[in-house]
């Protein structure tokens, strides 16, 4: 089991990173927000989990151990595989996702592509007593992350959204709506927060 890795970022994509560890470039699947939060040449530290299949070994990386633990937990539900689990974390911050599961908030869960009402009900039924306590501070942090970004990073988020299949106008409009709804001047340096919020906006 590869629990974590630390190394120089060689390449980034919409949902992938290549991190050099001990002279070996490791391809890591991750959320768009995590991929957008690092730069080529910088050192990245990721919590990881290795998914083993008959024909593949796939390494998934996360910004925090909380994300990784939740990624593993939701896969204990029938019908939820690694790709869907990763999509859940791409749309929602861990604390928001935990709160939705614990509180039976189906509307939040079905915003994730691939999760319908029945799937959301099954996730809540099987995990509501397993997600652990949801802290108010964690929810507040997640809410702040979801509504703030530095203007200079907007283009990066728009580019990521276009790469995921939306038109440039749809991506721009979603980013503008999120920034307009941010408290104050909305100038907080959090690329991942804006990307998550824009994905939620586009899923409405």
TrEMBL record:
Sample GO molecular function, one term: four-way junction helicase activity
Keywords of this entry: ATP-binding, Cytoplasm, DNA damage, DNA recombination, DNA repair, DNA-binding, Helicase, Hydrolase, Nucleotide-binding
GO cellular component annotations of the record: cytoplasm; Holliday junction helicase complex; Holliday junction resolvase complex
Pfam families: HHH_5, RuvA_C, RuvA_N
A Gene Ontology biological process term: DNA recombination
Region of interest called Domain III, as start-end residue ranges on this chain: 144-204
UniProt superkingdom: Bacteria
SUPFAM superfamilies per record: DNA helicase RuvA subunit, C-terminal domain, Nucleic acid-binding proteins, RuvA domain 2-like
Keyword flag Chloroplast: no
Localization: Cytoplasm
Ranges for domain Helix-hairpin-helix DNA-binding motif class: 72-91, 107-126
Function: The RuvA-RuvB-RuvC complex processes Holliday junction (HJ) DNA during genetic recombination and DNA repair, while the RuvA-RuvB complex plays an important role in the rescue of blocked DNA replication forks via replication fork reversal (RFR). RuvA specifically binds to HJ cruciform DNA, conferring on it an open structure. The RuvB hexamer acts as an ATP-dependent pump, pulling dsDNA into and through the RuvAB complex. HJ branch migration allows RuvC to scan DNA until it finds its consensus sequence, where it cleaves and resolves the cruciform DNA.
Family of the protein in this entry: Belongs to the RuvA family.
Swiss-Prot/TrEMBL domain comment: Has three domains with a flexible linker between the domains II and III and assumes an 'L' shape. Domain III is highly mobile and contacts RuvB.
Subunit field text: Homotetramer. Forms an RuvA(8)-RuvB(12)-Holliday junction (HJ) complex. HJ DNA is sandwiched between 2 RuvA tetramers; dsDNA enters through RuvA and exits via RuvB. An RuvB hexamer assembles on each DNA strand where it exits the tetramer. Each RuvB hexamer is contacted by two RuvA subunits (via domain III) on 2 adjacent RuvB subunits; this complex drives branch migration. In the full resolvosome a probable DNA-RuvA(4)-RuvB(12)-RuvC(2) complex forms which resolves the HJ.
Protein known as: Holliday junction branch migration complex subunit RuvA
Naturally occurring in which organism (per UniProt): Allobranchiibius huperziae
GN (gene name): ruvA
